[in-house]
């Protein structure tokens, strides 16, 4: 289990557009069509990462809670499935259903979307406003597998509350820590 930090894309960056296959609905999903009325969370996750497994329930809870506030969530897996077959699209579909993901779980086979976002780890979280400008990037909260801290989602929830309320997020934005994205060789 590698402790890889986020690269921390500059705030204000416009979200790179994408259209990727959704492993749950078996349809193509674009950022333009899936974005939320008030904001959008783009998450790079995968099936097998212990850091993602550690926060899955909280990601689902937050996504459900903020959907009614006009915030859309989009999950993307960009891992190399040749060397990590447990992260392949067929297993992503099963995993998403088992976890109760209320958001699309997209497969970035070429890894071009992960590169466009400068994603480094799973989970890697990005919050964009209604105009798709980056307002937050980083960790869900301070909890990590084995550190004994409860998973609260406090950093992400605070960022979303600031976005919805039109307030500046003055909290320090800490990088996420997780498994590195499994890049193709």
From TrEMBL:
GO molecular function: antioxidant activity; oxidoreductase activity
InterPro entries linked to this entry: AhpC/TSA, PRX-like1, Thioredoxin-like_sf, Thioredoxin_domain
SUPFAM superfamilies: Thioredoxin-like
Every Thioredoxin domain range: 9-165
Name assigned to this protein: Thioredoxin family protein
Organism per entry: Aestuariibaculum suncheonense
